[in-house]
Amino acid sequence: MKKGFTLIEVIIYIALFSLLMGSAFVVVYQLIEGSDKLSVKNTTQEEGNFVMRKFNWALTGISSIDSPSSGTSNILKVTKYGGNKINICLDSNKIKIREGGTTCSGNSTELLPLTTDNVVVSDLSFEFIPAVGSGPSGIKATVKIDEIDFTITKYLRK
Hints:
alpha+beta, 5-stranded antiparallel β-sheet, 4-stranded antiparallel β-sheet, 34% strand, rod-shaped
């Protein structure tokens, strides 16, 4: 009796090994692809949270809302106590901000970007909320970053 593998046994072992290796490659590919998607989603969430914190800062301690004075606009112009003006607008798929005199309709090179090239901002709107009774007026800011909506609402202190 001879010891060793027959040709059929070798072919079966090679087929099983190929099946296992193919499955392993598919699993590794799916893990890498899922990691990339999660990284993109995390980047979008971080950018959105950063923009919302900046909107919160811009809308805290304001004495007047210059734009929008009614309805909805894609430009925010507010004056803080002390006379400091804040302007925020959408320019070339980026949200830009300026503290001081230059408005969004002026020289856009003086505006500082709030968002990076890692995300695309497709919509920015500021809605004026009129005062009701003795309640304060306010602003609702909505931004769409990589198809995810972020919203913040702030009211004027009286």
